[in-house]
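Bit of a strange request maybe. I'm writing a small parser for structure token strings and I need a real example to test against, not something I typed by hand. Could someone generate the tokens for this chain?
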Amino acid sequence: MPHIKVIIPAYNEQDSIANVITEIPSVVSEIIVINNNSTDNTVVIAQKAGATVLTETQKGYGYACLKGMKYIASQNEKPDIIVFLDGDYSDYPEELTKIIAPILTDNVDLVIGARVPELREKDSVTPQQIFGNWLACFLMKLFFKATFTDLGPFRAIKYDKLLTLNMTDKTYGWTVEMQLKALKQQFSYVEVPVRYKKRIGVSKVSGTIKGAIFAGVKILTWIFKYSLK
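Reply from user aminoacidic:
Good idea to test on real output. This should exercise your parser:
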């Protein structure tokens, strides 16, 4: 069996994190929750559910993911695959087996869980998210001939390939940075349609005007930066 670890950034997800952890398939060897300055009971609940919990005091999705990667790099036994998953229970954790399947069967480098319209619960994705995803994917197609349709956070990547990306984004640009760098390095990639439901709680990004604007600016900055290289 491949060695698989899951990284879950979490900020005030006490109402959802246990559901996420307990529904992750047993093929995963370690679930790593990154407490990103939570002020609720996220840490205690995640630990009770069986996850390894780390704390990253710098707020930001990228900061949390980088913390998880640093922890994995310090371990003697390295994983074959890293899966990134949100802690808000909007994805279906049991679909992790679908996400990793192309890596195991077809030796694909990167797999994105695509939140296709026909599998999305009504109102689970905000209008600004829909437009932002469409624009980002359109620009990646225009500049790089990419076939991405989504910037979905539920994704899997070979660990050795992840290291070669030299990920740096600390906040909202993490997902698009990964996809852009994968394109630049000519990784093989596919999208797998996944179900998507309304998250528990309020989104820290799309749920606020400030978050949506900052995320949009960050994503576009990454795309135009790479289009000029």
